[in-house]
Amino acid sequence: MSKIPPRALGVCAALLMSLPCRAYTPDPPPLIEVSDTLTEGSARLLLETNPSGADIYLDRVFLGRAPHDQPGVAPGIHVLRFELAGHRPRELVLDLAEKRSYRIELTLVPRTGRLSVSVSPPDARITVDGSPMPGSLAEVPAGTRTVGAARFGYDTAVQSVYVPEDGTASAAFALEPSPFTLSELRLKQTAFNPSNPGPLGRAEIRFSVTSFGRAELEIRDAGGGRAALVSVPPFAETVQTVVWDGRDPEGRPLPEGEYSLTLRAFPEDPAADPADFVRRAAVRIDPSLLISARGLSGGISGLALFPDPFTDPGRILRFHSALRPVLSRDGSPDRSFVSLDAQASFDPAWEAALQGSFDAGDAESGSLGAGLKRGLTRTTRFHAAAFAA
Asked: Taking 70 as the threshold, does the pLDDT of residue 317 lie above it?
């Protein structure tokens, strides 16, 4: 089988456009492969399009949808037409010979036009049908498009714009400044333990604003004493996040108890009254919410069910794995055991475990176990639990 250009071996390809103007994206040439067959008096067509699913017509008679195999085509000149919704139709004029097979790959180009958008302020984000538009001038699918412009601190604007095929459409936006609004405080978790690692050891407070300004978060203990004052940088986006680690200036965890949160926002708009933008919430420091590493026992065969009295607070799912090589007497690797287990905490009292172990070199080896744990007593320094496996 050999690859040849469309004009070789008596094959001629022609593109017929429905509009006289030149397309912005040219149609790539078809790929035609010709090979010999043993079928006398006819030719064979193997037709593929990218994207697939195009309707195929031979001499104005519908054949099917691509990919398509059409044997028994009479030799001579024929016209192939490919149609796919949202794409430019293409036609090929072919001079077919008997005892030949023609494999044709054709790329269909979407119907497109150009869209020009001007917006004030100039750094606003422009979208077309919900997708970001690259720059102020872009080639987009022809038809009615939903064009939007958005920027923090301004009201979002939307227009419906008709983009003609191979033509240019334009849209203009002048965004209006948004009035300042402040949402209620949203806490990722209402209680936390500063001794926990990562996100589990801090409070995450979120709120939303619609315009420019700044804020500060004051945190006080149950006695009214100030525990922390967190400054929020000037607003540059809608969703704001403030993180408090629950520690004193020396880095030590603060005592157990409930702490009040007071957020005061200061809009840049001189007409806005800061007294209207105060939001409050509360968070609790609870040392019993201890989530620490459970050691390597979780990844060793059988020890997922080891009687460990410590339970996780709330709902937490843990996964453990381990690879344990077994060495021969001369120190060379003999085999390897793989252990996998999952531990789920339904609430502070109940925990279940599922554990499996198998020999990576022996398909018939393996073990599976399950266990259930009921927490009986839980304090900061003492845990007790009952087990079933």
From this structure: yes
